[in-house]
Amino acid sequence: MALPSTNTAAVDFLKALVRIPSLTGEEAAIAGFVEQHVRRAGVDVLRHEDNVAFGIGEGDDTLLLNSHLDVVPPSDDHPYDPFEPVETDGVLYGRGAVDAKASGAAMTTALLSLAADGWAPTNGRLLVGLTTHEESGGTKNGLQDLRPNLPSLSAAVVGEPTTLRPCVAQKGLLILKIHARGTAAHAGRSHLGDNAIPAAMTAIRQLEDLSLDRADPHLGAPTATVTTIEGGEAHNVVPEHCVFTVDLRTTPAYTHDEIAGLVSEAVDADVEVYSDRLVPCATPEDARIVRAARAACPDAEPFGSPTSSDWVFLHDVPTVKMGPGPSNRSHTAEERIDVNEVKRAVTVYRDLIRAYFSRAA
Which residues form the Peptidase M20 dimerisation domain (predicted)? Predict the structure, then answer.
């Protein structure tokens, strides 16, 4: 078990991280701070752009603890300066306090405290990777860029707020653009045209009738929601094109290619795959990393999460998503975390690490 002074160090480190505004794409200062902090503790650091990775141990069995350094912009009506950590009544306020600097602070402190204890895995390597561009959802992603520079991974923990419950499945996101086609004509001679807007309405009804009822045990069935629609260019022209967007929250019960194919068969319109990179993820509950997480938190039942994370870039590796704080405080003006949960996270991560490496592969 980590000593109280070690757990308190994690809170101090978290406060220092919150003080550094690290909006997505602006992570250089915080990456430099983390690098210096780890080097002062005598642990070597790999710096790839503004991604920071460090570890202890040798061997092929590599466990990665990953969280992200970037935060979303401040909300309106923060009770305090969002980049000045304020602790009151055992609660720490600040942008990133929950999502996800608490996870990064606890993971870093867990590794450094194990190193200070003289512990390292005898049969593998423990890594912590703190990465960039998680919040943007764009094509650039820090973990995706960092991973080719890391050893082959055996398992991973993604640090996101789960109140330290082990998340073993998360939904993916598939965005489709569905194009209904028609023929343009002057609205005064509408019989000479073919209006694409009613065709789009037909396609929407066909989509609503499509059954995606194969359920995941933790996440249920996928959902499909029409979120935008656009058609027509002028009030006196019969529209020849109408396009609508479908937001599909997917589960491991279907692949993205499978769902896109089913939608194409169901609708009388052209289906464009607009984005399919955020794949659904799941890890079997008997996987070694899940058993280690449950050993560290024996009273916490595994669950499935509707929110995406950098787990999508570890979908080929047995992974759990697990970190301090509740997810519903992420990105809010009231973002805050219980100090005791940050301290507890250090102990949980240390216990998870030891449990993982004490088990046979």
Answer: 168-270
- Quickly state the pLDDT bin for 324 (edges 50, 70, 90): very high
CA distances from 67 to 99, 129, 147, 291, 344 (A): 9, 7, 13, 21, 17
284: tokens are 């079997």
Alpha-carbon Rg for the chain, nearest whole angstrom, is 24
**What CATH code is carried by the domain that includes residue 230?**
3.30.70.360
Same domain membership, residue 52 and residue 103: yes
% of the chain at pLDDT higher than 90: 92
Do 30 and 118 share a domain, yes or no? yes
Number of domains in the chain: 2
Of 288, 248, 328, 319, the residue nearest 123 (C-alpha): 288
Give the residue-averaged pLDDT of 340-359.
Answer: 96
Same-domain check for residues 351 and 240: no
Among candidate residues 97, 113, 112, 99, the one with its CA nearest the CA of residue 17: 97
Q: State the pTM of this model.
A: 0.90
Asked if 292 and 348 touch (Cβ cutoff 8 Å), the reply is: no
